[in-house]
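Field notebook, page 247. I keep forgetting to write these up properly, so this time I am using the form the group agreed on. The chain and the ligand, magnesium ion, are recorded exactly as supplied. Prediction of the bound pose follows.
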Amino acid sequence: MSDVLTGTTTGVVRYRGWNEVPAQFRPPAPPRHFVGRDAELEKIRAGGVTVLSGPAGVGKTALALKWLRDRGSGDGLYVDLAAPEVLGRVLRAFRLDGVPADERAAVFRSLVVRRQLTLLLDNADSAEQVTPLLPASGTVLVTSRKKLDLERAHEMDVEPLTDTERLKDLLDLSYVELPERQARLYRLCAWESGAFGVPHAAAIAGEPECDVEDALDDLVEKSLLTEVGDDAFRFHELVRAHARTKR
Ligand SMILES: Nc1ncnc2c1ncn2[C@@H]1O[C@H](COP(=O)(O)OP(=O)(O)O)[C@@H](O)[C@H]1O
Ligand SMILES: [Mg+2]
């Protein structure tokens, strides 16, 4: 296959049917233990430009990659704008060689539109750097440490993960390591709104009191349950909410 990608002033750039996004420009996988960011993931819109801005290390790239993996469509193209000569390298990787420097942005935009690539422009430094690369249509995510004030873009501040999100992550880690009896008690007793004792927990679980007592002590040791007074137990509200999400 050999068809015209775009006309340039110096000639015609041919697109030689390179079917896959070259490996070095495919979006990497998001962090394996990605947590939180539900609200942010909801807000990123398909079919538009979203700028994720926030300080270094806050989680902009991870958020963008997670969105691409879970909610993006089609092929993704990952461009690290902090890397030197990146536009030329992207085009060459797609076998678009010899594009003059002043035409690279236009050829890049055609490539993205034509292939319906979902674009992640990571580490943008300015609106001037990004604007020439924005395709006429399609989904674009941009990350930057700065506010870019891009036209026609949806700007989103990425804040540090909240304590609640971190806690949920920690609780998940503790929960998956619980032995079956403890895990079951954790799920069942979370439906008690107040404090409860061993006999009550044993009745809910349908298990002998001595086993239930040991299991509850284990939950206390793992900071999933609080002992309040003599043989009475209670969940912290956030922990209880977490336990109730488990089936
Ligand atoms: N929601 C998250 N869940 C788990 N790990 C995260 C999350 N957000 C960021 N991280 C981790 O924190 C580190 C910094 O995140 P990163 O996305 O690279 O920050 P930024 O792009 O804002 O500089 C990375 O190691 C990343 O994997
Ligand atoms: Mg980043």
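OBSERVATIONS:
- The beta strands are 3-8, 11-15, 49-53, 76-80, 118-124, 140-144, 153-157, 196-197, 226-227, 232-234.
- Residues 31, 33-37, 54, 56-62, 143, 161 surround adenosine-5'-diphosphate (ligand 1) (CB under 6 Å).
FOLLOW-UP: compare against the apo run.
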